[in-house]
């Protein structure tokens, strides 16, 4: 082709190489000319080494010299050169040739730029242009055309095929999975020597959700992902391999495009390219202080060269309550209320006033009951999501601009969330060896909600189903006499949950901005310097208002008047990182990758708080929050936290010999301002090795094995997630009515030591040691691939609040004590079951077994006990840690049914019940008019005490909140244009502390509040017979009435008690996602200028198989001391989605 030869002669090059590989020569020629070389890797790898010395010679001269030495030939098309190897004797007479033209696209309809289109067995080939178009001349009749591109399956077509007009390349998942993201760089998966779990954008895109947690749950072995509850703004909780810290945050380090973030709740899934989870120290040690609990690396979609393309994704969702807790209907509730009044007062006078005569109670069977769960959590709220992405660019400048908007209506009435996200990535080649990468993000979030979700949920569960009287007349909320019991206590059930909801106003607004830039300098062959700087700011405003009719207004000291409060928070952080990386292949067998780096991280929080009370009764939330001066000032604080700074130096060395033997070494030294001078620095080294057996010559005969690699690693990582100033005193300025001072005098403003713990200047790093053995395998040409890992993690020098003598003025001090461990096994499998032209089916499965243990506590201590934050709860502790046992153990009393008449002596004169000697005595748990009698719940006497009285000494371990098994499995496939995905996740053998159960099964409730159907007449021990007569003072009648009772009386206790009846097995299997989609044929869309269009329908949380009686067994994992509590949280919804993916 003379015109192409002439074009090549226009460029001159200078080259001086001796015994160099052809591939390295192509790299040098590309840098000097700006041209790109495309070639078959096998052809280049088998070509002989070459020696050339030229100065300012035409490019064509150099190519001719290469041809002479290698028998390679070149074909120029615009700015690309395709490389081929001549096969002697394969020339076809040119008289029978043709010209073919066409377009190469991917499965989404996007143009594939730089794809090679070549006549098989010849050097005749071209590459596609910016529009994906090609023109190939001199094609012999009957020849085979090869179409190939990196990361895609090669296509072979005959020269006469009509499919050459439009060729669709399919992604090659084996090649796409080759690269994973490590700290400060990438690596081929085949070169990985540690434990990494990855999820691709393809997998994430199959879940229609604005939450990353929904897309990841159950997909990675050993990575437990939950949300705190079903609220729209629920935080995402991620725990890798159990977590080893007792009191500190066990969440991993989250990095989005290299920048640390607090969580992943604000990252739109449609913007994610990949997620890689580094699970052990050989991978995480390069992050030092922050990597002890694993590292989650999120990479958002990067700019790609090509013609500007537009993608639009949208869906609409509706939600419904996945399940309700069974509560009493009108008749059951009124019967329970009658019993309550008869036992409490000995008469039915108050009952008759509100609910009518006992003989008329049957009429309630025919009235409509109100289940307030339907009113507060019912309905079918609508959510909308929109994503618009524009990307493209030239070889020098590429961009990716994404806008995301979602507006959700929550399942909880009055709740809602709206988000806007803008992400701009712009990469520009400043000079031949210098690139600029920029990344700008702007995010806003507005959360609407009435008060806190827990308050609304518990109110809905416990509010009476009827107002009383068959006429429907209601209890008068303004009648003080009616709303006070005989002791003058408020009944606290004046207003319905809907009315209360209207009285609680809350709006949280958040704006976040981040700017990141990096300079990448390719200094010389194999050497690259990268300098990146990022800054991020987040401003949030949280407004709350409680009206005159709210329960807050009726609390003591509030005088039934409105109140308001506002919290403003400002957080800023910056990061500066510099890395120097050297990569080279020596003598084609020694592959070296070295990296040195330095990093500085800084973050600081400021917040202000103000509150006011006693606003005018009729004031609106907007008016009160606009002008706090209309109320009486209550509190005002302003707090600027000490800056959290970390300086780091780190390095990593990767080496492999012939892609057969691998070694990795990393180190990091971190200095943190959270520790005193002299204690600030921690050093965290790690190393790993691997042996790729499948590359051994003696393994070639085992043909069914495609991949086999053994791995081993050992390393250290740190944890400094404590408050910033625990090593010295700090002070705060405060205003309020309870200022400390002589004679309790008030001061408008004062300064005081603002610390819960006594400072400790000897605090040091908490350190985690990880050990890992792994096996990666693939069989039957990688139709089945998998990974097995066995690990043992030890966390020492635990940062825990230890008890100290009160003479210090404090009760606790943060110190380094103790040691914990996690041991486990993980298995991941991926299989390609069917692969044909029209039908594909694949499956995935993962399972993880984990067991944690407390190895050591403070010197001389063998156990620690602590108490979860629960209101009106008995005792000083309900969780326990003991050396040699698991963390997260629930500590309480063991239920032993209920007391029967035979357990008591009855005094006919005093009408009092007295326990017989030797019967365990629970009487300390009953008070007031709930006198201790048959029907009360009974606990086992476990202590050696001579007394029959049940005390804290009779408490024992009654539950373990740590799941022994976690995992997930799924199926995905396609038939022609139809596709489907189904995914399940599961957790086995763990306990849930069901606090809600006590509230609904006992007297720990508000007056006139509802109960669980578990306490209906047919099951509970009761004191009123069918005629409405109180038989609690008639032993014979009471025994006869309850001969078939199945559970204790709901009037057993008047305070919260941690007991075995509240501990339930939380094991579950959940259908997380089911999606069916249809991609329209291209021939239907081409006239409309549309490249691809897919419509899909999806369901999430469709069903859960579990024996747990609460809303959902997948409760939030709190800190190590008090996990697994289900207490008044918004239940998860069942979600149905209709969406589309559009490309044009």
TrEMBL record:
SMART domains: STN. The keyword Ion transport applies. GO terms for cellular component: cell outer membrane. Its main location: membrane. Gene3D superfamilies: 3.55.50.30, Carboxypeptidase-like, regulatory domain, TonB-dependent receptor, beta-barrel domain, TonB-dependent receptor, plug domain. GO terms for biological process: iron ion transport. It comes from Bacteroides cellulosilyticus DSM 14838. Residues 468-493 are annotated as: Disordered. Signal peptide: none annotated. This is TonB-linked outer membrane protein, SusC/RagA family.
């Amino acid at each position: 082709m003379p015109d192409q030869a002439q074009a090549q002669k226009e460029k001159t090059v200078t080259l001086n190489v001796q015994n160099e590989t052809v591939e390295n020569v192509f790299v040098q020629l590309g840098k000097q000319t700006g041209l790109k070389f495309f070639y078959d890797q096998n052809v280049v790898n088998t070509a002989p080494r070459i020696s050339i010395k030229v100065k300012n010679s035409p490019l064509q001269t150099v190519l001719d010299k290469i041809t002479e030495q290698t028998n390679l030939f070149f074909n120029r098309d615009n700015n690309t050169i395709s490389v081929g190897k001549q096969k002697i004797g394969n020339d076809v007479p040119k008289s029978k040739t043709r010209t073919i033209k066409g377009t190469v696209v991917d499965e989404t309809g996007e143009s594939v730029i730089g794809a090679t289109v070549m006549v098989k067995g010849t050097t005749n080939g071209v590459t596609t242009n910016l529009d994906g178009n090609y023109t190939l001349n001199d094609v012999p009749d009957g020849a085979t055309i090869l179409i190939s591109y990196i990361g895609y399956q090669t296509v072979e077509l005959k020269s006469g095929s009509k499919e050459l007009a439009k060729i669709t390349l399919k992604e090659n998942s084996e090649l796409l999975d080759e690269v994973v993201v490590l700290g400060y760089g990438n690596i081929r998966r085949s070169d990985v020597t540690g434990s990494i779990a990855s999820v691709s954008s393809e997998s994430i895109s199959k879940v229609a959700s604005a939450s990353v947690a929904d897309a990841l749950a159950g997909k990675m072995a050993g990575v437990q992902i939950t949300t705190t509850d079903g609220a729209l703004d629920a935080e995402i909780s991620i725990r890798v391999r159990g977590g080893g810290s007792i009191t500190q945050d066990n969440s991993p380090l989250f990095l989005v495009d290299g920048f640390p973030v607090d969580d992943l709740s604000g990252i739109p899934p449609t913007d994610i390219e990949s997620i890689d989870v580094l699970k052990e120290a050989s991978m995480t040690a390069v992050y030092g202080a922050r990597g002890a609990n694993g590292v989650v690396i999120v990479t958002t979609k990067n700019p790609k060269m090509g013609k500007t393309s537009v993608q639009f994704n949208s869906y609409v969702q509706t939600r419904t309550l996945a399940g309700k807790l069974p509560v009493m209907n009108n008749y059951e509730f009124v019967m329970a209320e009658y019993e309550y009044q008869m036992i409490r007062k000995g008469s039915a006078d108050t009952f008759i006033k509100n609910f009518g005569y006992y003989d008329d109670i049957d009429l309630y069977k025919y009235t409509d009951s109100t289940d307030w769960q339907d009113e507060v959590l019912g309905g079918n709220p609508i959510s909308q999501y929109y994503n618009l992405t524009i990307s493209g660019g030239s070889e020098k400048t590429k961009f990716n601009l994404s806008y995301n908007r979602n507006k959700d209506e929550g399942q909880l009435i009055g709740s809602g969330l709206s988000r806007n996200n803008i992400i701009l990535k712009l990469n520009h080649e400043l000079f031949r060896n210098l690139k600029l990468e920029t990344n700008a993000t702007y995010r806003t979030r507005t959360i609407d909600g009435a008060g806190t979700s827990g308050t609304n949920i518990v109110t809905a569960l416990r509010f009476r189903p009827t107002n009383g009287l068959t006429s429907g007349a209601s209890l008068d909320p303004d009648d003080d006499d009616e709303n006070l019991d005989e002791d003058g206590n408020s009944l606290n059930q004046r207003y319905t949950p809907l009315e209360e909801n209207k009285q609680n106003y809350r709006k949280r607004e958040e704006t976040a901005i981040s700017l990141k830039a990096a300079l990448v300098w390719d200094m010389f062959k194999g050497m690259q310097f990268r300098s990146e700087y990022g800054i991020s700011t987040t401003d949030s405003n949280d407004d709350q208002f409680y009206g005159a009719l709210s329960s807050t207004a009726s609390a003591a000291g509030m005088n039934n008047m409105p109140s308001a409060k506002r919290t403003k928070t400002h957080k800023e952080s910056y990061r500066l990182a510099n890395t120097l990386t050297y990569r080279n292949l020596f003598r084609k067998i020694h592959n070296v990758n070295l990296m040195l780096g330095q990093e500085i991280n800084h973050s600081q929080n400021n917040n202000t708080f103000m509150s006011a009370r006693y606003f005018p009764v009729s004031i609106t939330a907007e008016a009160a929050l606009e002008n706090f001066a209309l109320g009486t000032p209550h509190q005002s604080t302003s707090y600027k936290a000490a800056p959290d700074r970390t300086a780091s130096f780190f390095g990593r060395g990767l080496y492999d010999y012939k892609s057969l033997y691998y070694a990795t070494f990393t180190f990091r030294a971190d200095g943190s301002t959270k520790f005193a001078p002299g204690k600030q620095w921690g050093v965290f080294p790690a190393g790993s090795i691997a042996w790729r057996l499948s590359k051994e010559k003696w393994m070639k005969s085992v043909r069914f094995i495609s991949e086999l690699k053994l791995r081993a690693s050992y390393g250290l990582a740190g944890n400094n997630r404590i408050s910033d100033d625990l090593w010295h005193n700090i002070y705060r300025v405060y205003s309020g009515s309870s200022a400390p001072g002589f004679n309790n005098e008030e001061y408008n403003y004062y300064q005081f030591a603002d610390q819960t713990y006594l400072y400790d200047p000897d605090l040091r790093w908490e350190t985690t040691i990880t050990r890992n053995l792994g096996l990666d395998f693939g069989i039957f040409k990688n139709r089945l691939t998998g990974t097995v890992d066995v690990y043992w993690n030890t966390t020492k020098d635990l940062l825990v609040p230890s008890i100290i003598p009160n003479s210090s003025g404090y009760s606790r001090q943060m110190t380094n004590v103790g040691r914990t461990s996690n041991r486990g096994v993980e298995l991941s499998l991926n299989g390609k079951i069917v692969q044909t032209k029209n039908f594909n089916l694949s499956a995935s499965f993962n399972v993880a077994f984990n067991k944690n243990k407390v190895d050591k506590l403070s010197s001389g201590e063998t156990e620690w006990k602590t108490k979860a934050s629960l209101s009106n709860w008995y005792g000083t502790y309900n969780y326990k840690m003991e050396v040699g046992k698991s963390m997260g153990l629930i500590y309480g009393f063991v239920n032993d049914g209920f007391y029967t008449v035979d357990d008591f002596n009855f005094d006919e004169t005093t009408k009092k019940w007295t326990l017989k000697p030797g019967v365990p005595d629970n009487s300390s748990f009953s008070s007031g008019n709930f006198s201790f009698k048959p029907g009360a719940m009974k606990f086992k006497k476990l202590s050696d005490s001579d007394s029959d009285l049940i005390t804290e000494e009779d408490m024992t371990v009654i539950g373990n909140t740590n799941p022994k098994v976690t995992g997930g499995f799924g199926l995905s496939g396609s038939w022609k244009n139809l596709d489907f995905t189904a995914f399940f996740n599961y957790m086995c053998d763990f306990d849930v502390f069901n606090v809600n159960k006590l509230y609904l099964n006992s007297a720990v409730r508000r007056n006139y509040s509802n109960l669980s159907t578990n306490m209906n007449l047919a099951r509970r021990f009761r004191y009123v017979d069918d005629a409405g007569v109180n038989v609690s003072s008639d032993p014979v009648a009471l025994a006869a009435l309850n001969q078939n009772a199945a559970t204790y009386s709901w009037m057993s206790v008047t305070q919260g008690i941690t007991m075995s009846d509240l501990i339930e097995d939380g094991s579950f299997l959940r259908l997380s996602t089911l999606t069916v989609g249809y991609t329209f044929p291209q021939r239907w869309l081409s006239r409309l200028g549309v490249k691809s269009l897919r419509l899909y329908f999806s369901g999430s949380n469709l069903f859960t198989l579990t024996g747990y009686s609460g809303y959902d067994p997948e409760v939030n994992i709190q800190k190590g001391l008090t996990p697994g509590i289900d207490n008044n949280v918004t239940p998860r919804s069942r979600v149905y989605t209709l969406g589309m993916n559009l490309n044009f």
